[in-house]
Every structure is written in C-alpha cells, then in structure tokens.
Design brief:
The complex is a heterodimer.
Chain A (H helix, E strand, L loop, with lengths): L4 H26 L7 H25 L4 H29 L4 H25 L7 H30 L5 H26 L4 H28 L6 H16 L1
Chain B lengths: L1 H26 L8 H8 L3 H11 L5 H21 L9 H22 L5 H26 L5 H6 L2
Helix pairs in contact in B: 2-6, 3-6, 4-5, 4-6, 5-6
The chains are: A mainly alpha, B mainly alpha.
Amino acid sequence: MPLKGDQLLLYGVQYATYALEVWVCASLVWGERWRRLKGLGLYVTSLFLLDGVARPAVSNFFGAGSIPFYYFYWITDVVLALGAFAVVCGFFRRACTREEKLWSFVRLLLIFVFLIVLGVTALSITRHYAHLYIMYIIELSQNLYFTCLILNTLLYVMLQQLAIDDDELGLLACGMGVQFAGEAACFALLHLTADNSMARGLTKFLAPSCTLAMLWIWVYAIGKTPQTVSARFMRGRNEALVEAVGD
Amino acid sequence: MFMAALILMVSTGLFFFYLQAVCQKILRRQFTQEFFQSIVNANRLEFPSVRKAIENFGSPVEYPRLTVTLKCDFLALTYLLKNAANVNQHYSYEERLLILYFKLVFVSLVTRHWLKLRETPAALKLTAILQYFANVVGERVNTVRFGNLTASDYLLNL
C-alpha cells in the first residue's frame, strides 16, 4: 500500500531523529568529548536503543496494537523520563562545578523534587485501582517530563544569574528545554481537546519534531559551540593595541 | 481543564523562549576578526549606521527608512550567504534558523510600531543578526582568499 504524505513526513522525521542520535554518539566518541559528557552520551544511546531499536522490534514481534507492546512502550518511556531527569541533574552538577556549597543545596533540592514527583503521582492515581501499575507508570512519566521542564528552566535562569560562561551547557539546556516544552504542550493539548483526532494527528508530528530539534541543537552544541571571548582577553587585546599605537 | 490550559500556555511560551535563546547563543559566536566591516563597505550596507544612531541618540532613524534599510540589507546578505564563496549554494541549518528569527523579530518591530511601543530593542536585535550574517560571508570570502588561489592570483591568471 503506498504511503500517504503525512506518513512519509512522519517517517522522514523519525529516521532523521535516529540519524541524529547516531551522529551525537559518534561525535561524542570521535571528538573525545565522551568523558566530559558521559551522562548525555548514555541518554542518547539509550534513546536510540529503546526508541529506535527495541520498540520497533517489539512492535513487529507482538503487533503495534498488542498489550505487550503497550506495556513495553510505557515502561521504556518511564526509563527515558528517568534518564532525562538524570541528565538535567548532571547539567546542574556541571553548572555548580565551582560552587560546592550551592551544589550541596541543589542536590538536596533535586532529591526532594524527585520524591515529591513520586508521591504526587502515587496520590493522583489512587482512583485507578484496576490498572494501578500501568497507570502509575504513565502518570509518573508525564509528571517527570514536566518536572524536567521546570528544572531545566531553573537551570537556565541559574546560568544567567550566576553568569556562568559555558555556552555548551547553555545550548544543551536549551535543546532539552525545546524537547520538554514541546512534549508538555502536546500532552496538554491532547488533554484539553479530549484526544481529538486532529490534535492527535498534530501531536503525532510535533512530538518527534521536538526531539529532532533537541538533537540538532545538541549536535550544534557539541560540534560548534560558539567560543566567547572573556573580558580578560579583550582587555589584554586592547592593552596590546594601545601599546602598538604608542610605539 | 484549567491546569491543562495553564500547562499548554506555559510550555508553548517556554518553547519559543528556548528557541530564541538558541538563536541568541548562535549570535554570540566570536569570529577571529571583524569580517563584517569589509562586507559592509563593499556592499554599502547601512545596518551599522542604524545601530550607531540607536547607540548615540537612543532611537533609530525614522520608521519607514529603518524598515526599508533593514529589509534591503537582509535581502543582500541572505543572497550573499547563499552565493558568495559558498560551494554548496545553500544555507546551513543555523542560517535558516536565524533567517526565520530575523523575520519574526521584524514582525515584532512592525507590531511594536503599531502599538506605539519602543522599537529600539527589536531594531538592535535585527542589526545583530545582520552583523552575524555579514561576518559569516566575510569569513567565507576570507577563507577563499587564503586558500590555494588568492583573489589577486585569480585576477592575474585571467
């Protein structure tokens, strides 16, 4: 059966995402940035292995509408959400490299936020006794994504407030933000429109596009991070210029 | 329902905020030298004088002239980005993103004018984007100049 235009576009976005995931991993290994960005590398690798390899394999084996695939999809989704949370924690650690006191406070805050998410999810699903386990997984995954969006925004504000001169980290956080904000908007739109078919069609395309945008920003951040010139360097250059004119 | 609407508004706002932050980060790129000056002189671009007017007098030149100036410079620079010393003759992804960003900021400039708000921040952002484009073009031209064949070599061999 020939593919429709929107299906073709969806496949295009999906395969471009896989290609960029491989590209991010390759550029981390190639440029020996692996040590510096271990957490990010692990997250992108797991994203590729779970979303690009395992899910299609399970879907082909059991069928896309089967119960095992449904369970597998949501369990891997919560694994990825936990991975994303860990990556955001890693970004916080990097932002606080020179501020050990701040890090000890941020670490406690992150643990506290994680426990709150677990608790709030448990409370909100007490009504769904019949499918307790899978409902908990789905709810936890959505709550974790939204928490990551809030934490990522806090991280970005912190980077600006503390004037941390790390453009790579800033871009990585922006990439993460684009992904989380897009996904959260999709979830909210679906909820508002009561799973309307048009909204579902839109989010089916928007959510992978946000992942694609995040990966593209990460590729740019890893490969081409703009090098900012420090004020000290500029001062030195100006002094050298004054001396040269004086001579 | 209320929470979902709130999350939709907040996350949509954050989505555009992060996209703008990415554009700003790209614009922060430092070039090894100020390549844009030669491109400005060679093509008689006017955006540096617009920026100077804003920096010196706190307000841009009159609105119709400002929009025409920025638009003309944008057209000239996007043409150069695509065709000047560009082997592939197409824009890179970051250039496409910045072109889109320029168009959005331009719309915001027009809207600000209609609403009688301050146009200066939008005008400054537009000149920053144009300067980035001019720097990229200048850098490319400079790379060609210091490649195997310089511009003078080329002319001598004609």
